[in-house]
Amino acid sequence: MKNIAVVGTGYVGLVTGVCLADLGHHVICIDVDEEKVSHMRKGYSPIYEPQLEGLMKKNIEEGRLTFTTNHAWGIPNMDVIFLAVGTPQQQDGSADLTYVQRAVNDIAQHINRDVIVVNKSTVPVGTNESIQQYFNQHVGELGRVDVVSNPEFLREGSAVYDMFHGDRIIIGAENEGAALLVEELYRRLKLPVVKTDIRSAEMIKYASNAFLATKISFINEISSICEKVGANIEDVAYGMGKDRRIGTQFLQAGIGYGGSCFPKDTNALVQIAGNVEHKFDLLESVIHVNNRQQVLLVKKAKERFGSLHGKRVAMLGLAFKPKTDDIRESASVVVANELIQEGAYVTAYDPIAMPNASKVLNVEFANSTAEALQDADAALIITEWDEFKQLPLSTFSEQMRVPMVFDGRNCYTLEAIQESYLEYHSIGRPVIGEVDLHKFEYTQNYLSEHG
Ligand SMILES: NC(=O)c1ccc[n+]([C@@H]2O[C@H](COP(=O)([O-])OP(=O)(O)OC[C@H]3O[C@@H](n4cnc5c(N)ncnc54)[C@H](O)[C@@H]3O)[C@@H](O)[C@H]2O)c1
Ligand SMILES: O=c1ccn([C@@H]2O[C@H](COP(=O)(O)OP(=O)(O)O[C@H]3O[C@H](CO)[C@@H](O)[C@H](O)[C@H]3O)[C@@H](O)[C@H]2O)c(=O)[nH]1
């Protein structure tokens, strides 16, 4: 069992640290965010991620997991140092490597022996070679550093599960001994290991995310054609996915992909490809389709009402996907801002993500689905939380002023909708029901005039 430091304790670093500790290693998680660290020391996870907190507490109690803000305490005497800091998007779409550079500098200052630095941050091809050169120049006589690229493929909302049951572990290394040692760290997981050179490992990460994003934009384009020709995207995706060469996963049509990875990684790969010789036209279209898809519900609602000015709109779901409190690049942010711009009054509800959303969204927040739907003229479903999928459809008709639903995640079967009193617009499927908007307008005018 090895002594491991993990630098950067966000989604990737914390899950990596906790899971490596659970495999039996001694892990010190280092983060510059003092509040986060003091929280984690007490066994509280700063992020909502199923299974994570329980596993964290267990490994703290069993003495294999500690947290610090102090690189000088965490870095010396380690066998392996994982790097898992953020690589956000810059204005031009390329990856911002500021945090990586700072963390590498922090690590270099405190290395006192031979060590392997394993990079899990998603970085442009060539970055890990630059990191290797930096260590070669700055660590000197105190120890030899071997940099290994080990990109991460976990999904938020199922991160712990993915760590233990991933499809593959990618190890990119120039030094065979370093690659073997990293493989050994994960041995108990019994997962397939792909060993390659560093540049190919870096490329595997970007290419994988770009391909998955392409699948989503492809099925979203097909869903628009389904709407035009009267086909049903659910049946089309199922029928396509049964072909094992295509596969059923990532063919869920909706209001586009969000999150901290697909948007930034697709943009970064477009930048890596460049503007002239290898211009990545296909991926640029994927991004364009996704931007269009994120505003689709607002477009549909606007078309249906004529104008959204003064309408009360309920937004169900804010997280970029279920089972996470992350709203980074979520369609909800785009949708809320569009609605506000159109002059609508927005009330939003999300089972988990409201504290994060309240930092960036200027909307009203409700305490429950029913409260959000109260007197609404339209409901927009943004995230397919089970809570919404299991909602009796009568809740919409009972709570809303106008029972008009725009479902961006196809949460309900058309059969169930047919038995409800809703007008229901979804993605790539026929519209069901038709409310008489004149009747509702008349009632509203009558009530406002006569009290
Ligand atoms: N979030 C995901 O699902 C996911 C999955 C696979 C890969 N990735 C990649 O992994 C990397 C990390 O992503 P994330 O979502 O975990 O980021 P994050 O923003 O959640 O966490 C990064 C953490 O690093 C800390 N940090 C920054 N500089 C530091 C330093 N010098 N020393 C110590 N700590 C420092 C920050 O305080 C923060 O807590 C990114 O490159 C991302 O693209 C993310
Ligand atoms: O069929 C689908 C599948 C996903 N999505 C959307 O795509 C986004 C991303 O979903 P998902 O991939 O499940 O979550 P992430 O946590 O962003 O994980 C992706 O990004 C991570 C960061 O790089 C990688 O590690 C993972 O392998 C990769 O799946 C979300 O907005 C989903 O709603 C769809 O619209 N349709």
Automatic annotation (TrEMBL):
Highest taxon listed in the record's lineage: Bacteria
Q: What is this protein called?
A: Nucleotide sugar dehydrogenase
Taxonomic source organism: Pontibacillus yanchengensis
Organism classification: Bacteria, Bacillati, Bacillota, Bacilli, Bacillales
